[in-house]
Design goal:
17% of the residues lie in helices and 41% in strands. It contains 3 helices and 12 strands; from the N terminus they run H-E-E-E-E-E-H-E-H-E-E-E-E-E-E. It has one domain: Electron Transport, Fmn-binding Protein, Chain A (Pnp Oxidase, Chain A, Roll). It has a 7-stranded antiparallel β-sheet. Strands 1-11-12 form a 3-stranded antiparallel β-sheet, with no helix packed on it. Strands 7-8 form a two-stranded antiparallel ribbon. By secondary structure, the protein is of the alpha+beta class. The structure holds flavin mononucleotide. Flavin mononucleotide binds next to strand 3, strand 5 and helix 2.
Amino acid sequence: MVPTTPEEFRRILGRFATGITVVTSHALGGSHGMTATSFTSVSLEPPLVLVCVDKTANTHDVLLNGERFLVNILASRSDHRDTCINFAGKTKDWSLASWTDTPWGPKIDQAVAVLGCRKTKSWPEGDHTIFIGRVEALGGSPGEPLVYYNRDFWRIS
Ligand SMILES: Cc1cc2nc3c(=O)[nH]c(=O)nc-3n(C[C@H](O)[C@H](O)[C@H](O)COP(=O)(O)O)c2cc1C
């Protein structure tokens, strides 16, 4: 065991393999989206999920002010890798992604799963805020998900 430094903390967390999401919303006008791996299911009944957003992210104020958001779980496709990188930057180019509008937020085409959520609660923890969403609608295109591990993209197969 070693002392917890920010670098070691990040390195160790990289060993936890996750899917990759893009969380979108229409709050505050326009379309907003951000790459996030902090997505987790919380409860089955009622159906609740959470996402943790850095307080310095633009998406933070969007979700704080909004009532609804959409979680897109990306597929193992080269264009979705590009989407992940696109939405992890500060300037998003919506013309690079193929997407469809929904009442919860933009739905990225070919996402393996999409969850339309109504925000029920949020609270700050450290430098992030935890947003809880009640899932109001579900969908997606079955396929292989994109996996994030050790700060890199992987496939299941
Ligand atoms: C693979 C990956 C996962 C990320 N997960 C999160 C996350 O869970 N929460 C978060 O706040 N930022 C996360 N980020 C960073 C944001 O995507 C990044 O800060 C983005 O520029 C925020 O955009 P915004 O300021 O327009 O909201 C992640 C980035 C990458 C590449």
